[in-house]
Amino acid sequence: MKKTAAEKMKLHGFNNLTKSLSFNMYDICYTKTIQDRDAYIAYIDEQYNAERLTSILKHVTMIIDASILNIAKQDYDPQGASVTLLICERPMIDQKLKEQPAETILAHLDKSHITVHTYPEYHPDGGVCTFRADIDVSTCGTISPLNTLNYLVSSFDADIMTIDYRVRGFTRDITGKKLFMDHEITSIQDFLDDDIIDRYQMIDVNMYQENLFHTKCKLNGLDLDNYLFGFTKNDIHPGETHEISRKIHKEMDEIFYGKNMPGKY
Fold first, then answer.
1. Rounded Cα–Cα distance for residues 44 and 108 (Å)
2. Catalytic site residue 88?
3. Does residue 115 surpass a pLDDT of 70?
4. I need a labelling partner for 170 at 20 to 30 A (CA). Which of 108, 112, 157, 211 fits?
5. Please, what are the domains in the chain?
6. Is 129 an active-site residue?
């Protein structure tokens, strides 16, 4: 097996580079009535409750071959959830997993942490509902959070994603020379499966000299029935179909480009 750059390096002491991977994932939906809107929020809240988020983050920990030191989790009223894991790079001897009796999830690591927070919300007048999940995987040492990318994308099936990756600090080789990066990367897309890349329009905004990488993703195409909650496009007039499609496209474009677009909701 070919060795990675990190495995080939001869270091002086511990690899203390901090690698942080951050996601914003968005799911967009359209509801016609207040009752359907409330039902969608309740559905999303149940789909991504603290218990399921904990399961996802535990699997992330397995992918990066880390050990969980502590978990904290919380479901919020009226909606939303949080989970945090504290992790370590190597198994802890006689270290028992502590799960706090709460509905917010927190996992504590001796070197790293994984967190997720959810934010269901809706437009007050336009029928557009947006669910956002914020995920942070921060590691120290040889653990790479980039290995979790494809699993996390598949776990949320998002319409829009913004992904940030940053390597901070430095470590030293055996001669004392500072090393500010211990692996090769030109883009976050390098670590995404081809089928994911094919499904999304992607834009990179990278600052290579600062070890900062940013990728924005918007789902290609739009099957309107996948965005309607409580009804289908066969239940409405073609003119209404066009208007709802416009609103959904507007919501996606505003999130993708990070600015308000002209036109009414």
1. 26
2. no
3. yes
4. 108
5. 11-232 (3.60.90.10)
6. no
